[in-house]
């Protein structure tokens, strides 16, 4: 049987998310996709089936009559797929008892430990392996089938992966207490930050990619003062006086609170970012992987920040 006009399950699921939210951008946000990316997926769906599925207006997105029929059929298809997936999972009990997780360093060091402790209480017979790297290596591990679930912090989503936002984080500028920026009375402007040589994570790191992307409008980023492959290594270099760095608030909070680092206020650039779970498109996590995803999503933790009174700005 050749099904030349049948959309894949992930596209049908996306369609139902658009219907539920009434918005392309809201449906995309839940998957870590931009509004243009969702629009492109919808256009591809419409080309495949051969008719318009949605009408778009300032008030949101609505189904066409043909689109309403497609959505109704999609619900049945997805329900049947859930039954099929559950049946396959029951036959793969030996594999489901092993959970392979890959994560970028910020998530691996500061969020996953708490989630895995809770997971261990509900799945005591599940053997969990965690591989920490950067966002690029994490995505590659999931795409290669070497990890059942991944967690990334970079802004890009490689083709072949689906994603869901699990937390938000903020990148912050930190320096050693003896650095001149630790005593300045005004914020560091985005242009100045873009023109300053920093202690950086390596290329491929989600932190490095997010920072470079955010500073691009303010000029070509300067060459790194120093490149280090771990967040702890960057922190140690900054504490030793190497120079400023931009790291996750989650990674530096304790050092700032203890006085080993000083957080420097910045102005003119948004360094908030999303942390996302990723898996192979069309292979929604099941078993312990699904439960880990559920643990990660509801709380949506935000990176902790120092009270405003700590900032050296007057």
List keywords for this structure.
alpha/beta; two-stranded antiparallel sheet
In the predicted model, the low-confidence regions spanning at least 5 consecutive residues are 300-314
- SSE string, helices as H and strands as E: HHHEEHHEHHEHEEEHEHEHEHEEEH
Strand content: 15-25%
Q: Estimate the helix proportion, in percent.
A: 40-55%
Q: How many extended strands? A: 13
The class by helix and strand makeup works out as: alpha/beta
> First CA to last CA: what distance?
71 Å
- What kind of sheet is the major sheet? 7 strands, mixed
Q: How does this model look, in words?
A:
The protein is an alpha/beta fold and 314 residues long. It contains 13 helices and 13 strands. Strands 3, 4, 5, 6, 10, 11 and 13 form a seven-stranded mixed sheet that branches. Strands 1-2 form a two-stranded antiparallel ribbon. Mean pLDDT is 87; it is low at 300-314. It comes from Nocardioides zeicaulis. Belongs to the LysR transcriptional regulatory family. It holds the Pfam family LysR_substrate. InterPro entries: LysR_HTH_N, LysR_subst-bd, WH-like_DNA-bd_sf, WH_DNA-bd_sf.
């Amino acid at each position: 049987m050749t099904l030349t006009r049948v959309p894949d399950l992930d596209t049908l699921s996306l369609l139902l998310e658009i219907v539920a939210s009434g918005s392309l951008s809201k449906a995309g946000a839940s998957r870590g996709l931009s509004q243009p990316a969702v629009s492109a997926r919808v256009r591809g769906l419409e080309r495949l089936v051969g008719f318009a599925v949605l009408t778009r207006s300032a008030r949101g997105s609505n189904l066409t009559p043909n689109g309403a029929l497609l959505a109704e059929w999609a619900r049945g298809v997805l329900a049947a797929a859930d039954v099929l997936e559950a049946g396959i999972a029951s036959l793969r009990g030996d594999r489901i008892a092993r959970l392979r997780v890959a994560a970028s360093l910020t998530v691996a060091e500061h969020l996953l430990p708490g989630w895995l402790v809770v997971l261990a209480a509900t799945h005591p017979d599940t053997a969990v392996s965690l591989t920490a790297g950067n966002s690029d290596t994490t995505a590659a591990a999931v795409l290669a089938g070497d990890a059942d679930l991944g967690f990334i912090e970079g802004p890009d989503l490689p083709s072949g992966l689906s994603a869901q936002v699990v937390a938000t984080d903020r990148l912050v500028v930190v320096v050693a207490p003896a650095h001149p920026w630790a005593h300045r009375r005004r914020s560091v402007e985005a242009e100045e930050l873009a023109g300053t040589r920093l202690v950086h994570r390596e290329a491929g790191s989600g932190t490095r990619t997010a920072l470079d992307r955010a500073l691009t409008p303010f000029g070509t980023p300067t060459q790194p003062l120093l490149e280090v492959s771990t967040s702890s290594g960057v922190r140690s270099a900054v504490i030793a006086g190497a120079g400023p760095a931009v790291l996750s608030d989650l990674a530096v909070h304790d050092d700032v609170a203890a006085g080993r680092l000083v957080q420097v206020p910045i102005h003119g650039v948004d360094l908030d970012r999303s942390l996302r779970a990723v898996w192979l498109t069309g292979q929604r996590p099941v078993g312990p992987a699904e439960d880990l995803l559920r643990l990660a999503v509801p709380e949506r933790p935000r990176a902790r920040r120092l009270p405003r009174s700590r900032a050296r700005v007057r």
